[in-house]
Design brief:
The protein is an alpha/beta fold. It has helices spanning 16-32, 44-47, 54-70, 88-97, 102-106, 109-117, 124-138, 152-169, 214-222, 240-253, 257-264, 269-297, 299-326, and strands at 2-8, 36-42, 78-82, 142-146, 177-179. It has two domains: 2-180 and 298-326, HUPs (Rossmann fold); 204-293, Orthogonal Bundle (Tyrosyl-Transfer RNA Synthetase). Strand 4 (142-146), helix 8 and strand 5 form a beta-alpha-beta unit. It binds adenosine-5'-tetraphosphate.
């Protein structure tokens, strides 16, 4: 069976950036790729590349799992699991570091950005993060990996590593392909629309959380930073704020940016923002309701246990084969 693999870090409450760039896309892909099995994990090993509060991390892991289900992921062709519960992820990360060059890691823009934000205590795991991510994907021989724009560079490295190993040991890894959504691939901050909307942005007003109440959602959109020329056009360089609101509306309604610009070109910013706010409120309403149902039902743990059992079988086999290919341990009889 062919695999599609992806993960989200439990680094805080999920926002509409992660939802529109990633989760909403999975829901569509599950329909489009019915013959594939989806391995979707909560990337807690990635989360600890930056120091985290223990209790917050635990809370986030459970919340992300429940939100995945609340957003409409179907469980029939899905294994949902927690990354750290499968030891092969850590093992594969180390093995792949032995194939990764320093220069490749030094070029990663996410490392540079995250390291810059931290004044001291930048960990070596933040630096080697792309090798862990490559392991997450290659362990399962993923054919496709749905990612937002920001993860494209890491996926390129994953492909390079797969090809490098294959050249040395014969075809061993499937070389994965990215699946990037046409709209929503990069939702920007509401307060600084030239920056990506991020879970860990210090400014809470920069984002809308999936569990925010309706009035907060309206307030955040109504105070989103725009510009003064008063025209509704898609021009991310000169009009990042309005372009971001157009992208959000487009990702929610499935209407093209072009159609939306035509519809709203004579509208003032206040009215346009009201339209976007109501669209977000309407989109998130059923997710919030389902989230509370999922939490109450206790089904999350059962689904995580089933996901773990399935993923572990695949991962264990792959790591044993890789150890053998490399020549580690004793020759198998
Ligand atoms: N703003 C975004 N727009 C579109 N896609 C996004 N993704 C994240 N933010 C946006 C996509 O969501 C998936 C999971 O991301 P992640 O949580 O594993 O890591 P991240 O990209 O580092 O997310 P954050 O919010 O910026 O987390 P922090 O602040 O902790 O680093 C990925 O496919 C990502 O592209």
């Amino acid at each position: 069976m062919k695999h599609i693999v992806s993960g989200i870090q439990p680094t805080g409450s999920l926002n509409i950036g992660t939802y529109l760039g990633s989760i909403k896309n999975f829901v569509r892909l599950q329909e489009a790729y019915k013959d594939h099995h989806f391995l979707i994990f909560i990337a807690d090993l990635h989360a600890i590349t930056i120091p985290r509060d223990r209790a917050e991390l635990r809370k986030s892991i459970k919340e992300v799992a429940a939100l995945y289900l609340a957003c409409g992921l179907k469980t029939d062709n899905l294994s949902l699991f927690i990354q750290s519960e499968i030891e092969a992820h850590s093992q594969m990360s180390y093995l792949l570091q032995c194939f990764t060059y320093m220069g490749e890691l030094e070029r990663m823009t996410q490392f540079k950005e995250k390291a810059q934000r931290q004044e001291k205590g930048v960990t070596s795991s933040l630096f080697t993060y792309p090798a862990l991510m490559a392991g997450d994907i290659l362990l399962y021989d993923a054919e496709y990996v749905p990612v937002g724009d920001d993860q494209k560079q890491h996926l390129e490295l994953t492909r390079d590593l797969a090809i490098r190993v294959n050249n040395r040991y014969g075809d061993f890894f499937t070389v994965p392909k990215p699946l990037i959504p046409k709209v929503g691939a990069r939702i920007m901050s509401l307060t600084e629309p030239t920056k990506k909307m991020s879970k860990s942005d210090d400014n809470i007003k920069s984002r809308i959380l999936l569990l925010d109440d309706d009035n907060i959602i309206r307030k955040r959109i109504m105070s989103a930073v725009t510009d003064t020329d008063g025209q509704i056009r898609f021009d991310p360089n000169n009009k990042p704020g309005i372009s971001n609101l157009l992208s959000i509306l487009s990702a929610i309604t499935n209407e093209s940016i072009e159609t939306l610009v035509n519809t709203y070109k004579d509208t003032d910013y206040k009215t346009f923002k009201e339209v976007v706010a109501e669209a977000v409120v309407k989109e998130l309403k059923p997710i919030k309701e389902k989230y509370h149902e999922v939490i109450k039902s206790g089904e999350v743990d059962t689904i995580l246990d089933q996901g773990k059992a399935h993923a572990e079988r695949i991962a264990r086999k792959k790591i044993a084969k890789f150890n053998h290919k490399i020549g580690l341990g004793r020759k198998q009889k």
